[in-house]
Amino acid sequence: MEEPRLNRKIIHIDMDAFFASVEQLDNPDLIGKAIAVGGSENRGVVAAASYEARKFGVRSAISGVLAKKYCPELIFVKPRFERYKEISNKIHAIFKDYTDMIEPLSLDEAYLDVTQNKKGNPSASMLAEEIRTRIFNEVGLTASAGISVNKFVAKIASDFNKPNGQKTVHPDDVEAFLEVLPIRKFYGVGKVTTEKMYQLGIFTGTDLKLKSLEFLENHFGKSGTYYYYVVRGIHNSEVKSNRISKSVAAEHTFETNLSSEVFMLEQLETIASSLERRLKKKNVSGKTVTLKIKYSDFTQQTRSKTLPYFIADKGLILEAVKELLYQERMKDSVRLLGISMSNLNTEVKKAVVAVQLKFDF
Q: Is the pTM of this model over 0.85?
């Protein structure tokens, strides 16, 4: 049975090339130039790229070596996450002038539910325009926005007129908008799923809409139910202003590959210290410790251990990591190590709240 569509007024704000734009804001000499934040021409991975660099095919998550090959004039800039967070806080302060229903997805993007807003303005499009103008005037950066009846459509719409633009998909136009959309542009459909859909003859929203719920569930499991409804404009997920982290992590890419566990352990101690600071800042602890290893050939491996108690202390984290490190021999030299904590105590708190909400007071 089809779920009823809940029409809200949702804005998805997405900062334009955020990390790179902050670097250009702080250093005018970089304006108009191809820059990559993170990585180097010899090591590491690109965290963000300016639009000038993107023209050459430089994107986040590709290696610095490949990025330099694509764009020989590329300028590498070390990331400054504290600065990005500072700018992000200023942007979120602007959001709060309009609504308290804000769901951050990262430092540079967020959903805003403006169905009921502090300005009393019934036009979500006008509010998005005003927010973007304020971000530019008060922070000095450009932002793009998508406006629609739910998070799914708003997220897709924010990509349409980038950079420094916005797109509104009105309630009556949602299904028509999704029908002509290439399936690869559907939020939540990755490369592997896209290829699978192509094999099943699904190339656009219209193709997807023609498939039955039973067909999609048979081929995609629970995700099939999601695809069936979203292509019909039905996505009732609320904007969650108190979104809870499911994991906390810290990692480091090395200038020179490490081949000895002794050297790795020294680096893991530093990474564990960083993770401890992040856990304490968020006031959380976890039971599951995961060691992430990326080898020189870029293959990746994870090793995990779940403890019977919650931890956030560097010493206890390192004790678990040592065990994971020596669990088996390294298959190659290592270019990146990371540690993450999951199975957090926030999930326990969330469960307790859910139980309490069942009672009427």
A: no
